Amino acid sequence: MATIRTFLFVFLFLFFNASLAYPHKGKLDAEGCHPDKRKKEYHCHQGKFAGQHFKSREEMLQKARQDKHRRR
User: Is the pTM of the predicted complex or chain greater than 0.70?
Assistant: First the structure.
């Protein structure tokens, strides 16, 4: 009986903790980024700037233009 309780406890613990790790619902734009109103920033999940944070979309686009000019 104790084994069943332990198994059930571990299963429920892992199930509810895993649900906290789901990604947020923010839709991504063409660059793979989106604004985060709570943190008041613009960050990227995919694409060239994945994992980077910016003050605004404009700042990210400015960095993209600078990188494009450097490659020429």
Answer: no
